[in-house]
Each structure stands twice: as C-alpha cells, then as structure tokens.
Structure prediction request, 466 residues.
Amino acid sequence: MDAISRPTTNQDARTRGDVITLPTAELPRRWYNVLPDMPEPLAPPLSPATGKPVTPDELGRIFPPSLIEQEMSGERFIAIPDEVLDILAMWRPTPLVRARRLEAALGTPARIYYKHEGVSPTGSHKPNTAVPQAYFNRMHGIRRLTTETGAGQWGSALAFATRMFGMTCRVFMVRVSYDQKPYRRTFMRLFGAEVFPSPSPHTASGRAILERAPDSPGSLGIAISEAVEEAAGRPDTNYSLGSVLNHVLLHQTVIGQEAKRQLEAAGETPEFIYGCHGGGSNFGGIALPFVPQILAGERIRAVAVEPDGCPSLTRGRYAFDYGDTAGITPMVRMYTLGHDFIPPASHAGGLRYHGASPIVSALVHSGAIGAETVAQSEVFRCAELFAHTEGIVPAPESAHAIAAVVRKAGELREERRGAAILFSLSGHGLFDLGAYEAYLDGRLGDQADQGEAIAAALAGLPEVRS
Prediction:
C-alpha cells in the first residue's frame, strides 16, 4: 500500500505512556508529492527576465538537476536516497505526544497530539529538507551553498547538513534576528558556516538597501536577494531555500507520514491539524499527507497559523510576485503582501516572509485548507502555558500553532465535544530565550496594524500578462 496510507501494526509503533514512537525501520522511505493530487495544476513560475515560464536552464544557475526535477515532478512518491535516510535516522522518526497536561489545564474534552520536531540535531524541522538539499547538490559536484535565514532555524539546519557532506555555506541572516538571537549564529559558525547580517555590504542588493535605509531591520525577502545574487555569480556555489518551494515541502512530508502512522496506532484520526506558517515548510510537512483525505471529503480541517504582523495568507493577494525584494527570483503565483513589504521586528523571525508557498496558497485559495492569525502577546501566553504543562519551551514560531490549538480546545470545551487535534511542534525555543525574557519583563507587546504598509507593498506587485 502507499506510504502515506499504509496501516500501522502493533509491532510498528511503541507507546510509552503518552509518547508514541516508531522504530527507525519505519522511517518513511519515500516523500509524498502532493502535486498530482492538487485540485488544479499550479501556475508555472515566470522568469523575471522574460515574464514567460521559467526554463530548467534558468533554474540550473542556482539549483542542481535533481531538485529541479523534484520541483516539477508529477510522480506521487519519490524515493529518498539511502545516504539521506542514514542521516535522517539520527533523529527520525520523531515522537508523537499526547498533551494530557495541557488538556487538563484547558479543561477541554479535546485530545491534543503534537509531533515533536525539536528533537533534531538543530532543534527544528528544518534538517528534513536541508539534508537532501545538501546531498543532491554534493552529488552534482557543488561544494558551497548560500542561503538566507530568519530566526536561524534554517541557517542552523543547512550549516549542519553541509558539514555532514563535507561542504561549506554562507548564511545571510535577517538583521533583527541576527541581533536578537546571537547563539543561533554561534551554532551556525560551530558547524563551519559564515554568517552575515542582512542587508549586508557583501552584495549589490544589500548595499542598495543599506543606502536607502541604513537602519533596516531586514527581511527574508532581502536576505533571499543577497543569497541568490551570490549563488548566481559563482560557478562553485548554488542556492538553497528552506521553505516555499515545492521540493522543500516535498522533503518535509516525512513529518505528516509518520504522524499518520502514529495516530493510527493510537486509534485516532485528527479532526483538526495546525502548523505555524511563514513560507509553508512546517505546515506543509504536517498537513500535506492528509490532503488526499481532505479532498475526499473526510472530516479533517487543516489550518495554517501566521502572525498578525505578517499575514500573507489572510491579508495578502493571490497573485504573481517575486520571492525576493530585489526582484531577481522567478515570479510565482502565491498569496503575497508584496515583495517590498518589510514586516515589523517581531520575535517570530522565521515567519516574517512576505509570501507563501504556491502549494499552500493554491490549497487555501481553493478552500481545501484554512488560515488564521494570532497576535504576539497571545502567542507568548500560550507558549508559557505549554512550557508549564508539557515541560518544553517552544520556539516562538511553533507557539503560533499552540495558540491556535488553545483557541480550538476552548471552543470544543464550550461545545462539550471531544475531537482529536494534531499540531506540529516545529522546534524548541532554547535559542529564543531573549524573546521570553522580553515577554516576562513586560517589554513584548502586539504589533501595530500593518494595513498601510501592506497596501503600499501590494501596489508594487509586478504586472503579469495572463
């Protein structure tokens, strides 16, 4: 049977109290590709130079052939190379945990489960794609990668992955997070990465931003421009992206595949699935393996949860836009706030991206999945509750999903109705204690409404002829 629907036997899963684990032999050996199951085909990305569908040769300037093939593949399942599985097996399969203490604190009849991705070597879900991306680049003869990072989870993952394959990498880290999270950059440096605050003086796009705004807090769009510019200008270097693209979400489906098997072992089918959303990698990883059931009419609702300071899915426009600020990446059809949008300097650095994955965007646009926002103060209150009850300090990004789960659990309490809730705990927050200190000291509030900034950025969307 297919990997995403194969039933779990009693020998497959082990339950210790409220923790459900799978043996290493049950690590998924194939990635699930949602593209063949989409309600409608995705619009092809457009070249920034010609406005026509981007060609493999254009993508080949910064990506290896294997990843380009995965980006466009129509195959429902794609085999995971043994060399990748060997490294993923260092921490996968990850645990599925029943959050009984949180349930009791909320007084809810809901049954809450979380997939604990914070057990990876870098403390988040990001190595699930960093490892295969480094592998496929290394097999193509590339020895050096460039990338951007927001809060640092992705930069940490790529630093780890490139070290595993004897490669090096350069990371452009959004300036506000570079200043807020010094130990994230220390972690990256420990694994051999070069780390620079973005915007930086090392690229033409960075220098242009600094000339206009010397105190710019940076954004993922700006950092992407810098990383892509450098990769395109060096034959020994490729670019690696930690979210948004189809092949990134593909690699992350190991999360949802494992969760399905573990829930089957618990005799559960989730009625609600939540994941924090920035570009879409974490949410896609937990939710996409359930899409066939959702489209078949099963009672499952998947919801992407984003910060109200950067609400691409809930306040953005479904349109073609650049993936970066300088406009040097292909244009993709997605929910976007505009590539010029600079989000406020929130502590959820990994969610400060102006656009959303084309896959997630298309599913939201079709109504197959939902999206909602939460405010920063609510996020940290729920993160504190989760730490007090479950004993884990969640990453601020992950706490967005927790906040949405707390809301839903409260609704089910009022309805006096039990239901299984699944969410992805995308990472731990032990590198984010500066944010928690600000929260505990009363220095962390909600962001101002971004309506004017969003409107101004949306006015600058590229004109695309249909």
